[in-house]
Amino acid sequence: MKVESDLQSAISEAGENKLSSIFDSCLEAIGKPIERLNKSDRLRLISLLKREKAFDFSKAVPYVSSRLNLSRYTIYKYIKESS
């Protein structure tokens, strides 16, 4: 059983690292630090994340909301707006 939990945590960590990498590259494409993003910049970032399939990862919305210091509700709203 210990092997199974170790495997699960390894998979989770690998996904989180990939998601972090995708987020950082999309943020770099915007060209502004998180603190200076306005709504249109955040919508553009969400569109880039969608294009890179970042939201296919487990727990992607909570991760993005944490990084942007926004609620999960707002992230879901931005995802819908960017469609």
Structure notes:
73% of the residues lie in helices and 0% in strands. With 83 residues, the protein is mostly helical. It has four helices and no strands. The mean pLDDT is 87. Helix 1 (2-30) packs across helix 2 (39-51) and helix 2 (39-51) crosses helix 4 (72-81). The chain has helices at residues 2-30, 39-51, 60-68, 72-81. The termini are far apart. The relative contact order is 0.14. The longest helix is centred in the first third of the chain and has 29 residues, at 2-30. The chain is globular.
From the alpha carbons, calculate the radius of gyration and give it in angstroms. 14 Å
Q: What is the chains' assembly state?
A: single chain
Q: What is the N-to-C order of secondary-structure elements (H for helix, E for strand)?
A: HHHH
* Low-pLDDT residue spans: none
Task: Return the average pLDDT rounded to an integer.
Answer: 87
**Proportion in helices:** over 70%
**Got a strand count?**
0
Work out the strand percent: under 5%
State the separation between the terminal residues, measured CA to CA: 42 Å
How many individual helices? 4
Note the main sheet: none
Shape: globular
Structural class: mainly alpha
